[in-house]
Amino acid sequence: MTRILLHACCGPCSLEPVKALMEEGFVPTICWTNPNIQPLDEHELRLATLLAWARDTAHLEVIIAGDDRDAWEREVAPHGFDRAARCRACYVLRLEEACRCAVERGFTHISTTLAVSPYQLFETCTEELVRLAGEYGLTPVVRDFRPLYPEATRESRELGMYRQNYCGCRFSAAEASVERQHARDARKAAKAHVG
Ligand code: SF4
Q1: Which of 40, 122, 170, 174 has the fewest CB atoms within 10 Å, i.e. the most exposed one?
Q2: d(Cα 134, Cα 89) in Å, to the nearest integer?
Q3: CA distance 29 to 27
Q4: Are 54 and 61 in contact (CB under 8 A)?
Q5: Of 33, 37, 76, which is best to mutate to test ligand 1, by the most ligand atoms within 8 angstroms of its C-beta?
Q6: What is the pLDDT of residues 81-112, one digit of tens each?
Q7: What confidence tier does 195 reach under pLDDT thresholds 50, 70, 90?
Q8: Is-contact 138 107, C-beta < 8 A?
Q9: How far is the CA of 88 from the centre of ligand 1 (A)?
Q10: What domains sit in the chain, N to C, each tagged with a CATH number?
Q11: For ligand 1, atom 1, which residue shows the shortest CA distance?
């Protein structure tokens, strides 16, 4: 049995990685550090959803690590709509804080639930997890949880968990809104074509 600190971006994304890691013999503790989530009400709602699930369903400890929103504005926001650079900086900020917390609490292994969402930049996230874990003397547990995403969606709906429709920052909220509009336009165009 190996203790692992699992950075969690939200409750729904934690369901399947926790199960998969436990099946491998890991004992996960959740780490919350997500200063990227805007606005603050949304941040509080996602955290409350995670805490309720961890307490009532998963029976897991949640460590609330640093949530440095000023650092996010300084180090991530200037990348604006350059998604590749912005998300890399965002992963670095959160995963570095998770690594710092892991070392402080005596963990040897670290992973992240970001690896379950097909909307994340998996390769970038993995690169940064491996690099930062190495810098902090931790073992990165890299798993491609993305095939488990449909099951996470189904189960989180069944549990009545709050499910957000954008990644977290204000840029992602705008991008998601544009994507939804494009999808609506495409459906309308397809209907008109059939008609
Ligand atoms: S889209 Fe998500 S990962 Fe990328 S910068 Fe925004 S909150 Fe961070």
Answers
A1: 40
A2: 17
A3: 7
A4: yes
A5: 76
A6: 999 999 999 999 999 999 999 999 999 999 99
A7: low
A8: yes
A9: 8
A10: 2-164 (3.40.50.620)
A11: 172
